[in-house]
Amino acid sequence: MTKYRQLRDELERSNHDLEHAYEELQSLNEELETTNEELQSTNEELETTNEELQSTNEELETMNEELQSTNDELQMINDVLRLRSDELDSTRSFAASTLRSLGSAVVVVDADLKVQVWGPGAENLWGLRADEASGRAFAELDIGLPIADVMPILQRTLTGQPTRSKAVAEATNRRGRPVRMLLECLLLRDDEGGQRGVIVVMNEAPEQP
């Protein structure tokens, strides 16, 4: 009987241990299922993120192509501007050489009677540099020419009444010497015939006999 009881007790302990092990296995299985669901969710999130990254990469590639195209266009525009700048510099140099060759004080004003061209002869005659005169109103220039007497001539020429006119003015050159100046004003027109400004050519008037 004692041996039987011992065997029964061992059997009960074994059954209890088996039940406990089964419960632990059941709990572990539930944890594994939960972990598997979390891994599945994480995998779906990673797939979505990968798709978004792929889409973003395609957008970046498209943007890069557009930027490259824009850069090519800007480079082309820059080349054209550089060419135009070289042509403009050449034109300005040619114009300056032409003005120097004329030996006259040549000034060009626009439709607002602001100085656009102040030739070398004008610099030498009045002692005012081109960078000091350009862009300024002709009426505001501080030179030895009686501006108040000259302005009406410029205004009449600008209106085309007449398109070419001459006048003589008593002036003082940059050395302080009195000079009689012969002013020739010519209306400057654009391609459509509109008034662009006035060309003023100034030379010392010949002495009267």
Short description:
By secondary structure, this protein is of the alpha+beta class. It folds into 2 domains: 1-102; 104-204, Beta-Lactamase, CATH 3.30.450.20.
Describe the structure.
There is one protein chain. The protein has 209 residues and is α+β, with helices and mostly antiparallel strands. The chain folds into 2 domains: 102 residues; 101 residues, PAS domain (Beta-Lactamase). The chain is built from 4 helices and 5 strands; from the N terminus they run H-E-E-H-H-H-E-E-E. It has a 5-stranded antiparallel sheet. It is rod-shaped.
Instruction: Label the structural class.
Output: alpha+beta
Total helix count? 4
Could you give a short account of the major beta sheet? 5 strands, antiparallel
Strand order, sheet with most strands: 2-1-5-4-3
Distance between the termini: 169 Å
User: What is the typical, i.e. mean, pLDDT?
Assistant: 86
For this structure, the quaternary state is single chain
Overall spatial form: rod-shaped
Number of strands: 5
**What is the H/E string?**
HEEHHHEEE
Proportion of residues in extended strands: 15-25%
When the domains are counted, the total is 2
Low-confidence stretches: none
Rg of Cα set? 48 Å
* Helix amount: 55-70%
